[in-house]
Amino acid sequence: MTNVRRIDETISVAPQISPEDIPALAAAGFGFIINNRPEGEESGQPSNVAIRAAAEAAGMGYAEIPTVMGGMTQAQVNEMAAALASAGKPVLAFCRSGTRSCNLWALAEASKGGDPETLIAKGAAAGYDLSGIRPVLDQLSARA
């Protein structure tokens, strides 16, 4: 199974997963997968259709919110927040390295009023530096 990094009890992030990883992820307690990779971003990447099929076969929820670094939109932040809210079970979000998924999670949490300092600390504990998006986290949190 891929390198899963736990952010908190509700979400973990990981680099690219494969359909073959899904049974082990389900057995580990994940109930929902969020795919943050655009289809065909990299040669050899498993198709989103194959990952969705494996997730659904394992009884897991699945959402696709394809993003690119530096190009995340408010609509994607809202989609991530909605997916996280609807999951009801531990979520695994993935992209090429896990960074986009962690950033998008933090932005979604800030948009719901999450404390930027806490979000940055959770990201750091999982090995991700969210300090570069601190100004946006502050803005989103203040508007919530």
The CATH H-level superfamily of the domain at 5-102 is: Protein tyrosine phosphatase superfamily
CATH topology of the domain at 5-102: Protein-Tyrosine Phosphatase, Chain A
- Structural class designation: alpha/beta
Shape: globular
Main sheet: strands, sense, barrel: 5 strands, mixed
> How are the strands ordered across the major sheet?
1-2-5-3-4
DSSP helix fraction? 40-55%
Unreliable residue runs? none
Number of strands: 5
CA-CA gap between termini: 37 Å
Oligomer: single chain
Proportion of strand residues? 5-15%
Q: State mean pLDDT (0 to 100 scale).
A: 95
CATH architecture of the domain at 5-102: Alpha-Beta Complex
Number of helices: 6
Secondary-structure element pattern, one letter each: EEHEHEHEHHH
CATH class assignment of the domain at 5-102: Alpha Beta
Describe the structure.
The protein is an alpha/beta fold. It has a domain at 5-102: Alpha-Beta Complex (Protein-Tyrosine Phosphatase, Chain A). Helix content is 44%, strand content 14%. Strands 1-2-5-3-4 form a five-stranded mixed beta sheet, sandwiched between helices. α4 (99-111) runs antiparallel to α5 (116-125) and α4 runs parallel beside α6 (134-143). The protein is globular, with a radius of gyration of 14 Å. The mean pLDDT is 95.
